[in-house]
Amino acid sequence: MSRGPRDNNPIEEWVSQIDWKNTNWKGGLGSIIVFGVFLLLVWGAMTSYYTVQPEGQAVVKRFGRVVAVKPPGLHFKLPFGIDQQTFVPTARVLKQEFGFRTVGGSRNSATEYDKGFSRQEESLMLTGDLKVVDVEWVVQYRVDDPNKYLHQVRDIEQTIRDASEAVMRRIVGNSLGSDVLTIKRVQIATTAKEELQEILTSFDMGITIGTVELQDVTPPDPVKPAFNEVNQAEQEKERMINEAEKRRNQMVPRASGEAKQLIEAAEGYRAQRVNRATGEVARFKAIADEYRNSPEVTRRRMHLEMIDSVMPSLGRVIVVEPGQTSPIPLMNLDANVPSPAVLAPQATPQSPASASSTGGQMSRPRTAGQR
């Protein structure tokens, strides 16, 4: 198949234009050597320096052997691939995600996560009470020794993942499902960090664990509705218990106060009655002693004291001598005073002395029509 002028290769055209028979090979060989030396110098210059970024260090190896660890900045090395550098991000916080992967997200869009079936294989765990929980966590770490980080373990990231998963499964397997889902999340993260650091230190990997954070701890998707119902029932139980405790705290102190009040009132009443009885006994004994000494005087004094205590409650009293006419009430001058009690003793013969004695004991108010 013939090709047109546009189908010819420029290199082939340049080769075809060379006159191989009349070419001066001596002069051309010198040019080739000079050109080769120039290329060699350019290559050596390009491979004799390197730059280390501010967020890490560079491990320099010469024929496979580590000869230096360089800090950030511009550095020189042997050219032509004799010295090779490997950058290690020692100032950056690295992380490993378990149960999910961050697949997107920027300043203007929300972060997206991948939680596929392969992710669930590493997050589904069995608790101590034979319950299945879905535990998602993140391990953050930093590189302390770049040389050990590159050469102590063959696959550094896979080693960290295997150790982290083993530690987390052991801790969750020794805990109750309810505790893993609620109150022991911080304790599990702290324990996992300590045990993972011990394992990596025993491997001499040059890594320091920063934090182990539990992102999301939930039951598996098929049992989430039942788990939510159980949580609601437990919350209702706690609410009712709290209400009962509140009611008890209100009623018990009130009942205790009322009981103390009744006891104190009874004690006061008892003391009052005892003191009154003691006083009456002492008074009775004193009167009895006086009665033994002078019975007539004591009897009269007691009679007068009784009359003095009873008469004020009777209101106005009118004493009419025997044989006299009862007084006629002219007008109701004492509206608020009870109606007068008319004491009319029976007509019995009485001596003037007794009449005068009676008149001396009782005061007689004079009324109209009485002489």
Q: Could you explain the architecture of this structure?
A:
By secondary structure, the chain is an alpha+beta fold. Among the domains are: 47-88, no CATH class; 94-219, 2-Layer Sandwich (Tetrahydropterin Synthase, Chain A). 49% of the residues lie in helices and 19% in strands. The chain is built from 10 helices and 13 strands. The chain has helices spanning 10-16, 25-46, 117-123, 146-151, 156-173, 177-181, 185-203, 224-293, 295-310, 352-361, and strands at residues 49-52, 57-62, 65-70, 73-76, 83-88, 94-98, 101-104, 112-114, 124-126, 132-143, 207-218, 317-319, 341-343. Strands 6, 9, 10 and 11 form a 4-stranded antiparallel sheet that branches. The protein has a 3-stranded antiparallel sheet with strand order 3-2-5. Strand 7 (101-104) and strand 8 (112-114) form a beta hairpin. It is rod-shaped and about 185 Å long. It starts with 9 loop residues before the first helix and ends in a 10-residue tail after the last helix. Mean pLDDT is 79; it is low at 1-7 and 339-371.
